[in-house]
Predict the 3D structure of the following.
Amino acid sequence: MSKKKRMYTKYTDELKAKAREMYISGMSYNEICRKMDLNVPHLSGIGRKENWAADRAEVALRVKNEILDNVVERDVDHIRMYQEIEEKGREALADAEVKDAGQAASIIDIGVKGERVVTGGLLELKFVMDVLKVLHGFVPEEYYGVVRNRLGLLIKEYEKRT
């Protein structure tokens, strides 16, 4: 059995840029080298020299912040909606005759419960983001993609239940 001989690969700026992009997107040096038929020690040396890990962390943080901003913005809109529902219920209760009081109280209850659900979701999201910040310092780089994918699956499962 003969080993496959690896031809010398010139690490052009274009090749390095593509490998860097793959690394920043979450692939490990091993995965990139298998896909592009490159030398792991050589590519990881380039990555360390050019500080790809810092670029990856910066992009990941920017993406997390964008996601968090979008979720918070959406949840703030939901809280406002539930507050409006609650306010309409209070107005209806103030104007209600005795037979309408139960309906007004139900409307207030819907608003209060909805606001609590949304606020609770924000607290859970903050907890998850705090956990990710802690993991970022301890999880080896080659596992970032795996952790990201598993957290994504966990979030999808959670969303199905709610």
About this structure: Residues 52-161 form one domain. The longest helix spans residues 52-95.
